[in-house]
Amino acid sequence: MSTSELAYKSIARKKLEQLKSRIPKEWRLSAKWIPSGMLSPEDSVTVTGKYEAVNVMDVPRKCGLLNAKELEITERWDVKGLLEQMAASKLSAKEVCKAFCKRAAIAHQLTRCLTEPLFEQALSRASELDSHLKRTGKPVGPLHGLPISIKDTFDVKGIDSSTGIASLAFKPAAENAPLVDLLLDLGAIIITKTNIPQTLGALDSVNNLFGRTLNPLNRKLTPGGSSGGEGVLVAMRGSMIGIGTDIGGSIRVPAMCQGIFGFKPSEGRVPFGGQLSGGVPGKARVGLSPVAGPIARSIEDIDVLMREIVPRAELYGEDCIPGQWDVSETPSRPHKFTIGVLPSDGRIQPLPPIAKVLNEVAQILRKKPAIDVVELPVPKVLGDCQGVANQLMGLDGAGNMADLLEATSEPLIPWLQGRFKRGTPRTLAQTYAIQAHRAEIQKEMLKIWMTAAGSSDGSVAKGRSIDAIIHPIAPHPVPEHDRYNAVGYTSSWVLLDYPAGAVPVRKCTEADLELGKEMEGKILSNWDKRNRELWNSQTVDRRVYLDSPLSIQVITPRLHDHDLFRAMSIIDGAVRNEQTKGSSGGAKL
Asked: Which sites bind substrate (predicted)?
């Protein structure tokens, strides 16, 4: 090592050597399967323009590293079906675990989605599960043998939670995060941890330790963040289901970018503690609280996981509340299931494909006799949410994070340059004022759900008329690296603590691109101006969006998490049925 080498570079090199050593040689791809232009991890942080629009989703199937049985294991079943196969001893936990570990290794070599492969530990645990089942005739728990991946931030005893920061590398966790213990007690197998952005403050997944995670659908486009590695691994079937976290959209954004499902629950539904974020401990207690939740390939898979976690969460997490999953939180009432269409946040106008796909879903739902669809006016305060959320996320002035970066002379990733800096922590009085503003917004936003209705005795009683809302996840399609805009479309619902999920609809078609036509109308804000740069033919080649996934966001009132699952199921079912009839208006995912 050169005496002039910056400390973070030496740490990153050792960390990458460690990662590589945890991938068996026989699981490594030959060079012919890795697309040209795969930059080194170090170069990938800053040089992104060289990536070609390559789709690598089929490489695991074609490369020859997975045998026919392993392909069947990783592709044939959903979560429920795979669990049934293992419980009936038709598949062993070890052969299932090995298939997914191998596929995760392949996915990583194509996308850099992993940080801490746990393959050796996972296979050992799988053998223990098999022995228990053979000895007792009973599975260890309802998730016996299920291969699960988790975001790098979650502590696993003996393993780093570096979160992509050199200062935190080679400092293994002393104990498991509560959610990790819960998953293990349920019988699951945690096979790997996945990549995230530096500081967790970007909606790409790139850092100086592990490099940039790539989108397997199109390597020119972002995989999203901050749970980007999770989204990629689940999409590539290297894990049956993944656990991410969300404070600004970090579950829903990666789901949108891969065309899969993401579920951000209300605060307290899933244990969140035992994570390393680089921030001041306890900050979330007085600021904005992130939540943990699943990323999956189907809403049914999310159901299987959440019905086991939610009723037990209070026993594991001091940050959790009592809850049940298999009952609706919505009282029975005579009106139909009512979905409100919220077209924008009032500050940023959605680009044409986003407005179009939201309208398509609304039209599909209008055809269902059991569903009412209503257009919602955009509440004026909705546009204020992002600013308040940013204030709460920055209460500590980012001093602790700045100290971690400076300790090894680690530079900021490109997207954070000009956006991240050491600031002055907010005073207690300032924090009071911000939280008071938040309360006023929450009070005003209640009106989006509630209406006054006359009762039989002539009095007036408040009642909820809207069961769920559909809304864009972002006002733009999946963008190129480092160009994600308008986090307010997702962070607002964290500020309000409304459960929100991502539902994929279809692919972007050439007709969606409206080539030769520019957007018109008044620019609403600086954010709106930046958003239009993702559509202006002078600043982007719109063809980059071709075949990328288009999704919508579904939102329900606070603590109505099972109702969110129900709404996502209804909407996804309606969309799939319409596509089956061949009248979706665009290409299927």
From this structure: 200, 226, 247-250
| 151 belongs to the catalytic site | yes
Q: CA–CA separation, 342 vs 413, rounded Å? A: 34
pLDDT in tens, 315-353: 999 999 999 998 766 666 667 899 999 999 999 999 999
Measured CA to CA, the distance from residue 537 to residue 353 in angstroms comes to: 15
Give the pLDDT confidence score for residue 334 in this predicted structure.
64
Please indicate whether the domains covering 1-33+55-278+297-327 and 330-589 agree at the CATH topology level. yes
Q: Is 250 a catalytic residue?
A: yes
Q: Which of 161, 167, 250, 551 is catalytic?
A: 250
What's CA 189's distance to the chain center, in Å? 20
| Helix residue ranges per DSSP H, 215-276 | 228-235, 252-258
> 513 Cβ partners below 8 Å, 6+ apart?
353, 542, 543, 545, 546
Binding residues for substrate: 200, 226, 247-250
Catalytic residue among 94, 151, 220, 356: 151
Q: Could you list the residues known to form a binding site, using ranges.
A: 200, 226, 247-250
What is the pTM (predicted TM-score) of this model?
A: 0.96
Amino acid, single-letter form, for residue 462 = K
- The answer to whether 277 and 254 are in contact (CB under 8 A) is no
- Indicate the domain borders of the chain: 1-33+55-278+297-327, 330-589
CA atoms within 13 A on the CB side of 18: 17
Residues 6+ apart with CB under 8 A from 83: 142, 143, 144, 145, 146, 304
Q: How many CA atoms lie within 13 A of 511 on its CB side?
A: 6
CATH of 1-33+55-278+297-327, one of 1.10.10.10, 3.30.420.40, 3.90.1300.10, 1.10.630.10: 3.90.1300.10
User: Which pair of structure tokens corresponds to residue 350?
Assistant: 């959605």
pLDDT at 101 over 70: yes
Section 551-562 average pLDDT = 98
> Out of 92, 162, 226, 266, which one is annotated catalytic?
226
One of 3.90.1300.10, 3.30.230.10, 3.30.1330.10, 3.40.50.1980 is the CATH number of 330-589, namely 3.90.1300.10
What are the C-alpha distances in Å from 441 to residues 151, 248, 464? 31, 17, 18
For 78, the token pair is 């959903």
